[in-house]
Amino acid sequence: MQRSSGVQINIVEKCMHNLITQGLGLSLSDPNLADTPKRVARMLCNEFFESLDKLPPKVTVFPNDKDYDEIIMLDNVPYSSTCAHHFVTFGGLAWFLYVPDKILAGASKIARIIHYFSKKPQIQELLSREIVDFFVDRVQPKGVMLVMRGTHQCMSCRGVKTGNDAGMVTSVLYGCFKDDPAARDEGLQLIQMSITDRR
Length: 199
Hints:
Number of helices: 7
Oligomer: single chain
Helix content: 40-55%
Number of strands: 7
């Protein structure tokens, strides 16, 4: 994501003020709109796009001194992001699997990585790739599989108006999950078990 400068919450607030009053012709004398420019600016800068002014999370790792070489999965990780094309939200659940090599990653760090890369204007395809690339760079695992399902408001409430049932699924495979069909099948079976358990 290319950026021209750092986040400026006061500029965002001013732009929202102009959008509401000049662009949409609404009056900020309406009590429901009076503080909306400030609220939206805070929401965008401090929540939706919080990663624009933050460094990536530190990944706590531990030595894999017992040579654990099976799949580790963090399942049903919720995420929420913002479509770079329309600036409306998309989000859903992620399933992250990896096979460690020399180090193990702290479980909560995987969820933090997913959260971090979600919090900027984004498209789901690149979001999935950024998460895996970052994890591979920091942890150097034997393999990674990430599957993300998202419901996109740019489809559900505008355009084709699919409603909330239609979603997008993206996957990124690395290492043994990409090269070994048996590892890939085992990973998909674990994801299916996770989905079934939620029903």
